[in-house]
Amino acid sequence: MKAFYREDLIEAGCDEAGRGCLAGPVFAAAVILPKDFTHHTLTDSKQLTAAQRYRLRDEIREKAVAWAVASCSNREIDRANILRASMDAMHRAVAQLSRKPEYLIIDGNYFVPYPGVPHRCIVKGDALYFSIAAASVLAKTCRDDFMLALSEEYPQYRWDKNKGYPTLEHRKAIERYGATPYHRKSFRLLSAQPEIPFDAEM
Fold first, then answer.
1. Which letter does DSSP use for residue 70 in this model?
2. Per mean pLDDT, which range of 10-14, 42-46, 149-153, 178-182 is the poorest?
3. 73 CB contacts (<8 Å, ≥6 apart)?
4. What pTM does this model have?
């Protein structure tokens, strides 16, 4: 893992969570870390357990120079599309940073330029750079908290377990109970083909 792509600039790492879900918002985070930051555990949030992610979230919030989390609702996703909503969520997170970044590094291969701040897209960046990994942890844990709260209102969809991802159990619940106001109507909610179950920690 590397600390920075551009060590000479104030650099923020950005990542999103929930892009492939059938329900709930897409979340994004932006994180600026100290120049001397290093960590022996922090990596791509998908490679961490839920307990590790929540421990790291507290540490990231405490040690970061600046951090922010933002989201786009399922209704916004349906009005635009999931790619555009993911970009909007990242822009919102960057805009909320208490310190203005001079450079952005983005997980993935596409980004809508943020006004006045150059960027670099990095495929699998959340496993290469600490700031992107930190953003992935914040986005993931905040989204999980949101879906856990929703699961109390809609327990039959087991969002406490699948977090809105298209598991077979989730698809069957939609077939039986219908879609909720939190489902993404622009997504294919029902599938004629069996789904490969997603990891419960996703």
1. E
2. 42-46
3. 25
4. 0.92
